[in-house]
Each structure stands twice: as C-alpha cells, then as structure tokens.
Amino acid sequence: MRLPRDLTGQQLAKALEKLGYTVDRQTGSHLRLTTYENGEHHVTVPNHSPIKIGTLNAVLRAVAEHFELERNEVISQIFSK
Question: What pTM does this model have?
C-alpha cells in the first residue's frame, strides 16, 4: 500500500489509535503518543500539515518494529477504512 502524501499530524495520531496509541502529551507542535499494548512504547509525531514523507516513514517503521510487523502491515491496518 502506498503512503498517503497529504497526512497531518492529527490524522496520523487518529489513525494510530487503531493500534492502541493515545496522545500522552503535546509540547509545542509535537505530539507524544503512547501505547501499552505489546509493552510500553512512545512515538513522537509532529503536528504539521502535511507531515514530511520521510518523517511519516520513520514513525511507521518504529511502530512496525514495536509490534513486530512489516511496515506494509501497519499501513494497511491503520489506513484501512
């Protein structure tokens, strides 16, 4: 599945809720999301519009590594309708 190119930080945070992430805190224009599923894990998401594709890729790679999934599996889980 192809990465969305026009995703905002808020939209990514909302999509990551499907994997159990919640917004823990916000400092400036960055959101810190935390999940306790499969152990505690934090990820920082810039609340920019749009998120740069490299940053989005890095966040998704970190999430995939935490859940021991392929990046494409994470993409299909959080962006499926």
Answer: 0.91
d(CA 31, CA 42): 10
All domains of the chain in start order, with CATH? 9-79 (3.30.920.30)
CB atoms within 10 A of CB 18: 12
Place of tokens 């917004």: 23
60 closest CA partner among 74, 48, 49, 46: 74
Give dist(CA 61, CA 55) in Å, integer. 10
What percentage of the chain carries pLDDT values higher than 70? 99
